[in-house]
């Protein structure tokens, strides 16, 4: 996954934000959750697994019917990084009757749990907002000849 710099992850159709870790013991946000959503919501965080590492891990998961990783497809709606190493991922599927509905969330959980600093991963499948092709990154559109 190409990155322009460590704070500008990947340009996609949906706006993205980065997680800004808290620094030092005097940080007023120490102990809060870092939260990234496609809509750009960000809350600060303390010491937690690297956001880049979590996204890279998620990007190793591919929909078996589409030759693009699920992050580039825009299936990841939110990632919460907690100070104690817990990670919560909200994701969706391309359709409610997706044949991979059981395996993709499990694959995301297993991939995230391998990231250094992660103590536990929880994956929720959500349906609101419904996924559509506008959530795909430019890289995904190019790979699928959808320009």
From TrEMBL:
<protein>
    <submittedName>
        <fullName>SUF system Fe-S cluster assembly protein</fullName>
    </submittedName>
</protein>
<dbReference type="InterPro" id="IPR034904">
    <property type="entry name" value="FSCA_dom_sf"/>
</dbReference>
<dbReference type="InterPro" id="IPR002744">
    <property type="entry name" value="MIP18-like"/>
</dbReference>
<dbReference type="InterPro" id="IPR052339">
    <property type="entry name" value="Fe-S_Maturation_MIP18"/>
</dbReference>
<dbReference type="InterPro" id="IPR014291">
    <property type="entry name" value="SUF_FeS_clus_asmbl-assoc"/>
</dbReference>
<feature type="compositionally biased region" description="Low complexity">
    <location>
        <begin position="12"/>
        <end position="26"/>
    </location>
</feature>
<feature type="domain" description="MIP18 family-like">
    <location>
        <begin position="51"/>
        <end position="125"/>
    </location>
</feature>
<dbReference type="Pfam" id="PF01883">
    <property type="entry name" value="FeS_assembly_P"/>
</dbReference>
<feature type="region of interest" description="Disordered">
    <location>
        <begin position="1"/>
        <end position="33"/>
    </location>
</feature>
């Amino acid at each position: 996954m190409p990155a322009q710099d460590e704070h500008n992850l990947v340009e996609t159709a949906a706006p993205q934000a980065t997680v800004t870790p808290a620094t030092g013991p005097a940080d007023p946000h120490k102990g809060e959750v870092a939260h990234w959503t496609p809509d750009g919501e960000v809350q600060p965080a303390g010491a937690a697994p690297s956001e880049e590492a979590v996204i890279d891990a998620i990007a190793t998961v591919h929909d078996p019917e589409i030759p693009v990783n699920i992050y580039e497809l825009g299936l990841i709606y939110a990632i919460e990084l907690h100070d104690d190493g817990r990670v919560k991922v909200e994701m969706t599927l391309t359709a409610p009757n997706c044949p991979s509905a059981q395996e993709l969330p499990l694959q995301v959980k297993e991939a995230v749990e391998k990231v250094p600093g992660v103590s536990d991963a929880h994956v929720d499948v959500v349906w609101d907002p419904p996924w559509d092709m506008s959530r795909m990154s430019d890289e995904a559109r190019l790979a699928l000849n959808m320009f």
